[in-house]
Design goal:
The chain is built from 2 helices and 6 strands; from the N terminus they run αβββαβββ. The chain has helices at residues 3-15, 65-75, and strands at 18-29, 36-53, 57-61, 80-92, 96-110, 128-131. The radius of gyration is 21 Å and the shape is elongated.
């Protein structure tokens, strides 16, 4: 009889924890690349993680798609990503939770140095591709979202 409340409490604790994986979106690129030359730098991957106390009080980090995307671009010293995918992982524990966003793609660098326009691509250049017309402006407000 005395074990029944303990078993019920343990079952409630078990139900209070869990995890989730959410496949994110897929995008052709993080910036328009029509008509521009670019060089493929290689695969790029980055994560952005936030930890919350009681599932709503931020303790550390930021689980922002923009932060993960920018980190992947910076790691390769690139201008943009192509063939981009994003996923979200969440872990929920009794006292804290953790949200992680992972961005993967192929890092590229524009041959025109990031200027709008573009030029003619050299024939036979390996690792190069044809890309989009003008580079979008960077946000001036850190809370402004970048659509991609």
């Amino acid at each position: 009889m005395k074990a029944t409340p303990l078993i019920a409490f343990l079952l409630l604790l078990l139900l209070a924890a869990g995890c989730a994986h959410t496949p994110g979106g897929i995008a052709a690129s993080t910036v328009p690349i029509d008509g521009r030359e670019y060089m493929v730098l290689g695969p790029a991957k980055a994560t952005s993680t936030a930890v919350y106390l009681f599932n709503f009080i931020p303790v550390s980090g930021s689980s922002s798609l923009r932060d993960a995307k920018n980190a992947a671009i910076r790691r390769q010293n690139a201008d943009a990503l192509i063939d981009v995918t994003a996923e979200s992982y969440s872990q929920f524990w009794i006292i804290f939770s953790k949200n992680t966003i992972m961005v993967e793609g192929t890092a590229i660098r524009f041959m025109d140095g990031g200027r709008s326009g573009g030029g003619q691509r050299s024939a036979g250049r390996s690792g190069s591709g044809r890309a989009p017309a003008e580079r979008p402006r960077e946000p001036t407000d850190p809370n402004e979202s970048m659509d991609w």
